[in-house]
Amino acid sequence: MNYYTDNNRILRHYLSHPLMKRIVEMQEHGYSDAEKYNYAPVDFAEAIEGYELVLNLVGELCAEVVAPNAMAVEEEGPTLNNGRVEYAPATEQNLDLFRKAGLMGISMPREYGGLNFPRTVFILIQDIVTRADAAFGNLWGLQDCAETIHSFGSDEQRQRYLPRICAGETMSMDLTEPDAGSDLQSVRLKATYSEEDGCWYLDGVKRFITNGDSDVHLVLARSEEGSVDGRGLSLFIVEKGCGGVHTRRIENKMGIHGSPTCEIVFNHARAELCGSRRMGLIKYVMSLMNGARLGIATQSVGIAQATYNEALEYAHNRKQFGKEIITFPAVYEMLGAMKARLDAARSLLYETARNVDMTGQFNTLSRERALTPEERNESKLFAKKADALTPIVKGIGSEIANQNAYDCVQVHGGSGYMRDYVCERLYRDARITSIYEGTTQLQVVAAIRYATSGYYAQLLDEYLAIEVPEELKPLYDRVLSLTQKYKAAVETVLSLGSQESLDFLSRRIYEMASYSIMAALLLGDAVADEKLFKPSLHGFVAIAEALLAGHATYIEGFTPEMLDYLKTNNKQ
User: Fold this and answer.
1) Nearest to 302 by CA among 92, 3, 534, 540
2) 84-86 vs 171-174, strand pairing mode
């Protein structure tokens, strides 16, 4: 079995998107690396061939090793000994295999020992890895933190750290504290500069840190004495081997057991500044968090794929009343909805990934030379689209993962509640996706300005400005109707003229925008490959129509007085 080849028609569809040719050419600097490295591609076709070889290798390792190891990892989990985390033996085996296969420096340049793959290809690989085991996907995916050092660190830091990450050293981003969760401006961990030693020292506690006992930490700390907001925070690099970093506990979690979530104590830990002082939250962590949110969106799609596969296999094998349960409408309706949501979420994921990729490509180019006016404008367009889509793909993608996990257990019936079945673990693993790296509610806050400004409506017009074959025109008209219903709902909410009403109704607007955009993107996929995507498009448009109709009715019937009733009901 191979987790790439068994799904490669869909994954290859995103690899062959028209924008990929430009992304790869920019990533390869016009394929100039071929002059220095004999394994670098000479053109786009050779680059794609190389990506497919790696995807095939990852698919094989995930199917043959990572997925079979997941149950042992779940049962044994990491342990804490003398302030140090020890992974479960099966996790060590997974990491060792990926290190030996050269899969720990996917997106880093070749000069540091990486594979120099674009972000979109990294996401494709992560899609497969998290399908096999979401917990291992966390550990492996945190290598993406190296991008922060590559983008904002000094040349000396890049030369010192990036080869080690590519060789397999692990990373973490240490942001959250006991009194600073979503509100990172309240971070208190103290950074003090020693003139005598010529370095920084960190003191304080970090909590809920994924892979918190990593080899290399990126730590958000307060460097400006007397400051109280984000302008007093800087980003630091801390090595575990330099001392002063102690893991106090591993959290006892509902799911994702193989990935240790730690409480970390910094006791005068030696650190070095990454980038400029006071830019830690304002610039570097915002970039880091956007990458992390795309990573959780990918994890969500991987889990949604795994839950669909588990439910489908069980429904074909389980018999009741003398028939396979897949033949019962109540079951195949659930499975159809799971597949439709999965394909829609994946379509949104790769649209977001391509725009994040292009934003990164222009950022890299701007560090090498001044951008032309045309390039600056284009860079801004990609960046705005990436910023607008990221809170949607993270929020809605994670909600879809949770719904698919719920339905997977339901298809299994009583068996799904038992720990003997994979779906029970998937159900617990899915739950965190709508919480960490920013709850769904925070994604609504991040996204709503793009709704009220008309930007999501503009995006929908862009996505629907396509030629559609005759057989897809009825579906096109239904998607167009969705967008019109969404636009009308936004106008109704804005006409209320109340910030409190807007805040209250923002989740419904957010979901209406998200489902309309996913429907439009899935329509585009169906235009490109009707046989592959039309069934899911049919299913998803029906789901989106029902959701938008419900939200539109609620918004039309809303009055500000409803807020008073709700507040009264919520009094203790």
Assistant:
1) 3
2) unpaired
Q: Rounded CA gap, 57 and 43, in Å?
A: 22
DSSP string spanning 251-291?
A: ---SS-TTS-EEEEEEEEEEEEE-SSTT-IIIIIIHHHHHH
Task: Determine the distance from the C-alpha atom of residue 530 to the mean position of all C-alpha atoms in its chain, rounded to a whole number.
Answer: 27
Element spanning 504, H or E:
helix 499-528
CA 246 to chain centre: 28
**Long-range contacts, 524-529 (Cβ 8 Å, 24+):** 524/347, 524/463, 524/466, 525/13, 525/343, 525/347, 526/472, 526/475, 527/466, 527/467, 527/468, 527/469, 527/472, 528/13, 529/13
**Residue in 263, 310, 424, 437 annotated catalytic:** 437
Residue 548 clears pLDDT 90, i.e. is over it = yes
Pairing between strand 233-239 and 261-273?
antiparallel
Q: Which two tokens stand for residue 369?
A: 């030379």
E strands, 49-119, where? 79-81, 84-86
437: annotated active-site residue: yes
CA angle, residues 267, 272, 276, in degrees to nearest 5: 125
Provide the CA 371 distance to its chain's centre, in angstroms. Answer: 29
Tell me how far the alpha carbon of residue 465 is from its chain's centroid: 28
Spatial contact of 459 and 381, defined as CB atoms under 8 Å apart: no
- Render pLDDT for 51-62 as a digit per residue (tens, 0 to 9): 999 999 999 999
Residue whose C-alpha is closest to residue 132's, from 253, 290, 6? 6
> Would the pTM count as exceeding 0.90?
yes
Query: What's the confidence (pLDDT) of residue 299?
Result: 98
CB 457 within 8 A of CB 490: yes
